[in-house]
């Protein structure tokens, strides 16, 4: 289970990435954020963003038309 959840359903890229970036700024190193999306592009975009910014991808799961992307906040 993640520490925090961010609802990005029905948003198209780049909005889920932008909202993820803004939310991560509020979190502490080591916290986990589950981003709930419907745009299939987020399965590539959010992990790429996380890698570039020093965060780590914990998991990506497709379940019932939703995409759950869990990111651990890095330094």
TrEMBL record:
Cited Pfam families: TusA
SUPFAM superfamilies assigned to the protein according to its UniProt record, in alphabetical order: SirA-like
Location of the UPF0033 domain: 5-72
Name of the protein this chain belongs to: SirA family protein
Similarity-based family: Belongs to the sulfur carrier protein TusA family.
Organism this protein belongs to: Methylophaga lonarensis MPL
InterPro entries, sorted: TusA-like, TusA-like_sf
CDD domains xref list: SirA_YedF_YeeD
Ranges annotated as spanning the membrane: none
